[in-house]
Amino acid sequence: MQPGKGLLMIQFDKAHKRFPNGTTAVHDLTLDLPEGGVTVLVGSSGCGKTTTLRMINRMVEPTSGSIRVGGKDVLEQDAAELRRSIGYVIQQAGLFPHRTVLDNIATVPLLLGWGRRKARARAVELLETVGLAADAGKRYPHQLSGGQQQRVGVARALAADPPVLLMDEPFGAVDPVVRTQLQDELLRLQRELNKTIVFVTHDIDEAVRLGDRIAVFRTGGHLVQCASPAELLARPADAFVADFLGAERGLKLLSLTTLEEVAQGPAPEGARWQLTLDAGRRPLAWRDSESKGEAEIPVRPLRDSDSLLSALNESIAAPSGLVARVDADGVLTGVTSREDIHARAGQVHSAASTVAA
Ligand SMILES: Nc1ncnc2c1ncn2[C@@H]1O[C@H](COP(=O)(O)OP(=O)(O)OP(=O)(O)O)[C@@H](O)[C@H]1O
């Protein structure tokens, strides 16, 4: 079977891994991953995520059961060839320290016999794809920041345009701001490339943000639930999954929905808190009309593409209880009340529960 639209790219069939010291890392895992999309493996430390990932490119071989990639059992494929055909990104990028960034990115194309010129041209193109300046190519990994090194790691994994990308906590070692940037970049790249990505993380927020599907594991290598983020958050399979998702899982669900469908209206006349605008009708602040000192509280205007969670947050923070809505140019389009945001949040919850049920 060749991979194609709607087909299964990776299939675990009762894949089991017991290490020689007796540790069972993965327990009879049966899981099908369709072509395209991001599947995130989550779970507490030691629950078998990395072992599961490494069985896909045969860095770890199953004790029993099978893993198929593109319909072919990995054990029937040449291990080196298989690894070259699957992108692999790890924490702290795992770059070769004595090779320049360009040479790092060109590694797999060179191994595949592309020839130096073609491999380097591809590396130059990829530098731009992952958002790095061309002059970064001549540097050595230690001359780049952690976030830049991760970008190089992603570029290297994409170099030979593999259909499958394995990512093992790729953004685990960078600060939260850079992490968000890298996540945004990955989402942008994925919209363009639509690879089949298997992504390991400890961070449930990262999983919700990136995943089309989330697979939750528990200790002993047991898969507990694999579902879309919305389904997982609305209907966790059991108390273990609910605990893992945390007390704010209801709020996390709101991060998956945008503000677009929530009604907006004109800012009320004569209310205590007045929205001040600049000459271009862009919101500046909430002004307290009852205060002699003209007290002002900053406003954070939201666009239709912002999440319902951001809207809830802003409606709580705004003294007026109103969210200022703007268009793509930042110009005021209207305001939305805390009550309307709450009502929409309730609908999102019931819809997610009903669909999942
Ligand atoms: N080569 C090995 N030999 C023996 N035991 C191993 C080996 N590799 C992993 N293990 C054990 O298998 C279990 C699963 O490990 P694995 O690294 O897959 O978990 P993980 O979920 O990725 O953990 P973490 O989130 O901490 O990276 C752990 O108990 C680990 O100690």
Task: Output mean pLDDT.
Answer: 89
Main CATH class of the largest domain: Alpha Beta
> Rg from C-alpha positions?
24 Å
The helix content, as a percent range, equals: 25-40%
Strand content: 15-25%
**Largest sheet, if any?**
6 strands, mixed
Total count of strands: 15
- Poorly predicted regions: none
Ligands and ions found: adenosine-5'-triphosphate
Q: What fold name goes in the CATH topology slot of the largest domain?
A: Rossmann fold
The number of domains is: 2
What structural category do the secondary elements indicate? alpha/beta
In a few lines, what is going on in this structure?
This is ABC transporter, ATP-binding protein (Cluster 13, osmolytes). It holds the Pfam family ABC_tran. The protein folds into 2 domains: 9-252, Rossmann fold; 273-348, Roll (CBS-domain), CATH 3.10.580.
SSE inventory with pairings:
Layout: E1 8-18, E2 24-34, E3 37-42, H1 49-56, E4 64-69, E5 72-73, H2 79-84, E6 86-90, H3 101-105, H4 107-111, H5 116-129, H6 146-158, E7 164-168, H7 176-193, E8 196-200, H8 204-210, E9 213-218, E10 222-227, H9 229-234, H10 239-245, H11 249-254, E11 273-277, E12 283-288, E13 296-298, H12 308-317, E14 322-326, E15 332-337, H13 338-356
Parallel strand pairs: 3-8, 3-9, 6-7, 7-8
Antiparallel strand pairs: 1-2, 1-4, 4-5, 9-10, 11-12, 12-13, 14-15
Helix pairs in contact: 5-6, 12-13
The chain binds adenosine-5'-triphosphate (ATP).
Explain what this protein looks like in three dimensions.
Helices cover 35% and strands 25% of the residues. It has helices spanning 49-56, 79-84, 101-105, 107-111, 116-129, 146-158, 176-193, 204-210, 229-234, 239-245, 249-254, 308-317, 338-356; strands at residues 8-18, 24-34, 37-42, 64-69, 72-73, 86-90, 164-168, 196-200, 213-218, 222-227, 273-277, 283-288, 296-298, 322-326, 332-337. It folds into two domains: 9-252, 3-Layer(aba) Sandwich (Rossmann fold), CATH 3.40.50; 273-348, Roll (CBS-domain). The strands form four sheets. Strands 6-7-8-3-9-10 form a six-stranded mixed β-sheet, sandwiched between helices. Strands 2-1-4-5 form a four-stranded antiparallel β-sheet, with helices on one face. A three-stranded antiparallel β-sheet has the order 11-12-13, with no helix packed on it. By secondary structure, the chain is an alpha/beta fold. The model has no long low-confidence stretch (mean pLDDT 89). Bound molecules: adenosine-5'-triphosphate. This is ABC transporter, ATP-binding protein (Cluster 13, osmolytes). InterPro entries: AAA+_ATPase, ABC_transporter-like_ATP-bd, ABC_transporter-like_CS, P-loop_NTPase. One of its GO terms (molecular function) is ATP binding. Keywords: ATP-binding, Nucleotide-binding, Transport. It comes from Streptomyces globisporus.
